[in-house]
Design brief:
The complex is a heterotrimer of chains A (327), B (318) and C (306).
Chain A: E1 11-22, E2 25-37, E3 42-46, H1 53-61, E4 68-77, E5 80-81, H2 87-97, E6 98-101, H3 115-126, H4 134-144, H5 150-154, H6 163-176, E7 181-185, H7 193-209, E8 213-218, H8 221-227, E9 230-235, E10 238-244, H9 245-250, H10 255-264, E11 310-313, E12 316-318
Chain B: E1 5-21, E2 24-39, E3 43-47, H1 54-62, E4 69-74, E5 77-78, H2 84-91, E6 94-97, H3 111-122, H4 128-141, H5 158-170, E7 176-180, H6 188-205, E8 208-213, H7 216-222, E9 225-230, E10 233-239, H8 240-245, H9 250-259, E11 300-301, E12 308-309, H10 312-316
Parallel strand pairs in B: 3-8, 3-9, 6-7, 7-8
Antiparallel strand pairs in B: 1-2, 1-4, 4-5, 9-10, 10-12, 11-12
Helix pairs in contact in B: 3-4, 3-5, 4-5, 5-6
Chain C: H1 12-17, H2 22-40, H3 44-50, H4 85-121, H5 123-137, H6 141-152, H7 165-188, H8 195-202, H9 207-243, H10 255-263, H11 272-289, H12 296-299
Helix pairs in contact in C: 2-4, 2-11, 4-5, 4-7, 4-9, 4-11, 5-7, 6-7, 7-9, 9-10, 9-11, 10-11
The chains are: A alpha/beta (327), B alpha/beta (318), C mainly alpha (306).
């Protein structure tokens, strides 16, 4: 099952575990994440806050919080192990292979530098040979992101941009390095609904125009559904279900995925639905299914045996005792 | 104004003065002649994008910021006329729930002491034991586990804290609670919880809500009446069934589409850099705009069902 | 649902004394030793009768024994008047600690309130507060002390034995006021717009209520971290002013004035007259720094939770 260059995956996470030592004891935010991203595809990860979505992105970049370390599993970029890269290699990997777009678009930009400086610097840093002036590239980059008057925007500073504009600048910055994979951490969560859709669409367009892959995480299944072709559902530090968008949105197999889907749809006149119980605090490594306390389908086997991994073919994967074909 | 009206807002306007650079002061009209009324035990939803003025209206209602013009009448008494002391006694009638549950609790206080604060301050008429009884009542009503009452805010999840915030708002027995984006910073998996809790509490405490959100679906679940705001103006006003069932203003239609992540049917242009000084404010973004839109638009009744719309095209087509 | 409570000493004494590192524990123990000396100071002669440690009247000269080196009778030697340096160094602990504490508490307390008020009110209140801070801070500390002594003379607030102590306290307060004001203001400024402050307004709290119930507690960690450091700084100021002849005058025991007595003797090889009081200043400052590191873990927002 261990992927690698053989199956052509761009990025492979297999059984990634992360432990963070805090003042109040160890926390285990990732407890065996399996995920593959192929060249040029868009993958989305959905889950509640605290499920390990952001930590998954951080483990891909090897950016651990203080006291945190990747304690198990493997992160592979094409045929190389990311965990074995030395400092120089890591820098190239972070800069030109993988780029990141953050949740808060305004603080992700340096407040002291103009938009032009930041984009030009990104071009200079990551492309050694540029034919033409970097300023021209910057202008072109902004035009790609549908800025009507790029020249005016280039002169501005981050605080003079609206959230949507700042996030588009961030996308331009991420793309400037010509990465093969873009990681996006809730890139539209703070934006207006009307802006959200626009930024999502632009992100998807630009990524696919450059043949790059996109790994997109959000707590909002609707946002993920808008951009991602394959969707993974995360719970308690594991990807509990993975599959094509149509499948996940119409007939998900995992009870948690079903519950999440129910929460998204509010129907007028009906009692709004939610998932009872709390997200686990990740202070222990869960031996059995971590969702069983909140699960409507809990069975005896859930308390007795560790989670089985059902590989269903066609990129579909499910971690649940129920199996894929319950009612 | 009827017997059942608890809050009435007449022509509320708020302008901020922003210093752009030395000598250059810009005025921003955050709310422009906004009028509405809320009835006892009912919910008014206010929807709009950021910058639409919905939070400004909330802050003006609560007296957290002074209004530039207009009147806010609470049970027929105008708030602006009240002195500081009188204002405090009116605070009891109107409470607020904020967007960020973590930020709306002092990290150094326990949940219990934060929830008790409005009781101690605003209900001097209650005896100590009545206050303790009331505190227990509201905290139980929002079903916040008793083991959490004496914890500091950071030990609670966002959903739990938002329950505590609702308890805090209900504690002094207000007539009206302003909910400023109460579910926006929560996971979708707890949004439903909070929404159904609010509906239950409205039954139990017979309190009116002003529910402010950019999440149309959440407002649709809770609200009886709805106003849609754009750049400080009300653009559509009516009952929830009218506004959400058959949105008539182009802006409402666009918001509806965007909230379902479907914009292909109706998409607004990008958010403008500068607002038009006259005429329809939505004009630069509106796909239906034409020359006649640059005339001043009024909020006028459309059709016979009592809803009002600020768009001459909608009104003309009936 | 499980929460992990950080390991913590059960007893308050243990919580205060045992620091995160051995070095801090040493410094804290040293501080409590100094505090003990400060408390017993005035009764040292009486205590000396019961235990075999050679102590004397700190003010009675011994004309037959001037400038004698450290010995079994005089552990730290004697000065030009034949006064026992060991006794005087211990008695001086009380003077230096007390004045530092009063001065810092007074100036720091006012600074905290002013800082909290300025960050709550903003606008012109904030501007005025900052101008005051700038004016006070633009004077070098010693110059400020000299100016105060010149302007006020020896105030006799503490009775006939005042000896310039009141002016010292005022000087220390004036130095500490802006330090605390700035620190508190920088912590609280971002809180002015915080939603819990607005929630408190909705709960009917007035400006002072918010400052007292919400602002001061939120700056508590910072204030507590600053307090030991400023006390150490205050001790240096007291010693410094006394050294240049302002404040406590000889023969009253005070570390700064004792160093001054010995300053001219050092070149003659009589090092003990200055070195021992100097060492005590260093030790007291060193012991106080044991509390600044992570003192927020003692009573921070999380300190009393769980």
């Amino acid at each position: 099952m261990n992927a690698g260059p053989a199956n052509g995956a761009l990025l492979t996470l297999s059984g990634v575990e992360v432990t963070i030592n805090t003042l109040s004891g160890p926390v285990h935010p990732l407890q065996g994440v399996d995920l593959e991203v192929f060249p040029g595809e868009t993958v989305g990860l959905v889950g509640e806050s605290g499920c390990g979505k952001s930590m998954t992105l951080r483990s891909i970049l090897r950016l651990m919080p203080p006291g945190g370390a990747i304690t198990g599993g493997a992160v592979e970029w094409q045929d190389r192990s990311v965990l074995d890269l030395d400092t120089d290699e890591l820098q190239t990997y972070r800069g030109s292979d993988v780029a990141m777009i953050y949740q808060n678009p305004v603080t992700a930009l340096d407040p002291m530098l103009s938009v032009e400086r930041q984009i030009v610097d990104a071009f200079k840093a990551n492309r050694e040979v540029l034919d033409g002036a970097p300023e021209e590239f910057a202008r072109e980059a902004l035009r790609d992101l549908e800025f009507g008057n790029p020249d005016a925007i280039l002169k501005r500073y981050p605080h003079q941009l609206s959230g949507g504009m700042a996030q588009r600048v961030n996308i331009a910055l991420a793309l400037a390095c010509g990465p093969s994979l873009i990681l996006a951490d809730e890139p539209t969560t703070g934006l207006d609904m009307t802006t959200q859709v626009r930024v999502l669409d632009l992100l998807e367009q630009q990524v696919s125009a450059r043949n790059a892959a996109l790994l997109f995480i959000s707590h909002d299944l609707r946002a993920v559904a808008r951009v991602a072709r394959n969707i993974g559902i995360m719970y308690a530090g594991r990807v509990v279900e993975f599959g094509p968008r149509e499948r996940i949105l119409t007939e998900p197999s995992h009870p948690y995925a079903r519950a999440l889907l129910d929460c998204v749809d509010l129907r007028a006149g009906e009692r709004p639905r939610s998932i009872p119980g709390l997200v686990p605090r990740m202070t222990e490594v869960y031996q059995f299914c971590a969702f069983r306390d909140r699960c409507a389908y809990r069975m005896a086997v859930c308390d007795e045996e560790p989670l089985p991994v059902h590989d269903l073919g066609g990129r579909r994967r499910l971690l649940c005792h129920l199996g894929p074909d319950h009612d | 104004m009827t017997e059942r009206t608890i809050l009435e807002v007449r022509n509320l306007s708020k302008t901020y003065r922003v210093r752009r650079s030395i000598g250059l002061v810009e005025t921003i009209e955050a709310a422009q002649r906004v009028s509405f009324a809320v009835e006892r035990g009912r919910t008014l939803g206010i929807v709009g994008e950021s910058g639409s003025g919905k939070s400004t209206v909330a802050r003006c209602l609560l007296g957290l910021t002074p209004l530039t013009e207009g009147e806010v009448l609470l049970e027929g008494t105008q708030l602006g006329d009240l002195g500081v002391r009188k204002m405090r006694s009116h605070r009891r009638m109107m409470q607020m729930v904020f967007q960020m549950p973590q930020a709306s609790f002092d990290p150094t206080h326990t949940v219990r002491s934060s929830v008790a604060q409005p009781l101690r301050r605003l209900r001097p008429d209650m005896s100590k034991s009545e206050q303790v009884e009331r505190l227990r009542h509201v905290l139980t009503a929002v079903s916040l586990g008793e083991e959490l009452w004496d914890r500091k805010p950071r030990a609670l999840s966002g959903g739990q804290l938002q329950r505590a915030a609702i308890a805090r708002a209900l504690a002094p027995d207000p007539e009206l609670v302003v909910l400023d984006e109460p579910t926006s910073s929560l996971d979708l998996s707890v949004r439903g919880d909070i929404l159904s809790l609010l509906q239950e509490l409205q039954e139990e405490f017979h309190v009116a809500f002003v529910f402010i959100s950019h999440d149309l679906e959440a407002v649709r679940v809770c609200a009886h009446e709805v106003i849609v705001m754009y750049l400080g103006q009300i653009v559509e006003q009516g009952t929830a069934e009218q506004v959400f069932g058959s949105p008539s203003h182009p802006y409402t239609q666009a918001l509806m589409a965007a909230s379902r992540f479907e914009t292909d049917s109706f998409e607004l242009g990008p958010k403008g850099e500068t607002d038009p000084s006259s005429g329809c404010r939505l004009m630069p973004r509106c796909p239906l705009a034409e020359a006649a839109c640059s005339a001043e638009q009024d909020l006028v009744p459309s059709g016979t069902d009592g809803r009002t719309v600020r768009c001459w095209k909608v009104v003309a087509s009936g | 649902m499980t929460t992990i409570v950080p390991p913590r000493e059960r007893w308050l004494v243990g919580r205060i004394l045992v620091g995160p590192t051995a070095g801090i524990t040493v410094r804290r123990s040293l501080f409590f030793l100094m505090l003990f000396l400060a408390v017993i100071g005035p009764w040292i002669e009486t205590i000396g009768q019961w235990i075999p440690i050679p102590v004397y009247d700190p003010l009675r000269p011994d004309p037959f024994n001037p400038v004698s080196p450290p010995s079994a009778e005089h552990w730290f030697g004697t000065d030009t008047l034949g006064l026992d340096i060991f006794t005087r160094v211990i008695v001086a602990t009380r003077v230096d600690f007390t004045l530092a504490l009063i001065g810092v508490t007074l100036g720091g307390g006012l600074g905290c309130l002013a800082g909290a008020w300025a960050s709550y009110r903003r606008g012109w209140v904030d501007v005025v507060a900052l101008r005051i801070v700038e004016v006070v801070q633009s004077f070098p500390v010693l110059l400020l002390g000299i100016a105060l002594f010149a302007a006020l003379g020896p105030l006799e607030i503490f009775g006939p034995v005042d000896n310039g102590m009141a002016v010292l306290v005022i000087a220390i307060s004036m130095v500490n006021f802006p330090l605390y004001l700035r620190q508190v203001r920088s912590v609280l400024l971002p809180l002015t717009e915080a939603e819990f402050v607005q929630a408190a307004k909705c709960a009917g709290l007035g400006a002072w209520g918010i400052v007292w119930h919400h602002f001061i507690p939120n700056a508590r960690g910072q204030i507590l971290a600053l307090f030991p450091l400023t006390c150490a700084y205050a001790i240096q100021i007291i010693a410094g002013l006394s050294f240049i002849g302002l404040g406590i005058e000889p023969p009253n025991p005070e570390w700064g004035s004792m160093i001054k007595t010995g300053a001219t003797l050092i070149v003659q090889g009589h090092w003990w007259v200055s070195v021992f009081p100097g060492a005590f200043i260093v030790l007291s400052v060193y012991s106080l720094t044991g509390f600044s590191a992570r003192s927020e873990t003692l009573v921070g927002p999380g300190g009393t939770s769980a």
